[in-house]
Amino acid sequence: MGTVFTVYAIYPESPEDVEKIKEKIRDVIPEQAELADMKEEPLAFGLKVIKIGVKCPDKVGGVVDKLEAGLKNIPGVQNIEVEATTLL
């Protein structure tokens, strides 16, 4: 059994939502997963994208689906994208 590391880009609806979203991200990480990194990067016109790195076991079913659904349901999140996935 290995560990999967995935980088997500989370796009807020407005610049005012960034801090609120960052606070909520920790709440939606499933128990089997680990938040390894979180940072902000400038996007355009004052907007920022939140990038997170998440580690989770590759054999545990439903963790990724639960994580992505949780991220999409955070108030103020416009969209999420998987930027990279790798097996550690």
Give the helices and strands, then pairings.
Blueprint: E1 3-12, H1 18-28, E2 34-44, E3 47-57, H2 63-72, E4 77-87
Antiparallel strand pairs: 1-3, 1-4, 2-3
- The CATH level-2 architecture is identified as 2-Layer Sandwich
**Strand content range:** over 45%
Largest sheet: 4 strands, antiparallel
The computed structural class is alpha+beta
Helix content: 10-25%
The strand line-up of the biggest sheet is 2-3-1-4
Global geometry: globular
**CATH-defined topology:** Alpha-Beta Plaits
CATH homologous superfamily placement: Ribosomal protein S6/Translation elongation factor EF1B
Q: Element order, helices and strands?
A: EHEEHE
Q: Whole-number average pLDDT?
A: 92
Structure report:
The protein has 88 residues and is of the alpha+beta class. It has one domain (3-87): Alpha-Beta Plaits (2-Layer Sandwich), CATH 3.30.70.60. Helices cover 24% and strands 49% of the residues. A four-stranded antiparallel sheet has the order 2-3-1-4, with helices on one face. A hairpin with a 2-residue loop joins β2 (34-44) and β3. The longest helix is centred in the N-terminal third of the chain and has 11 residues, at 18-28. The radius of gyration is 13 Å and the shape is globular.
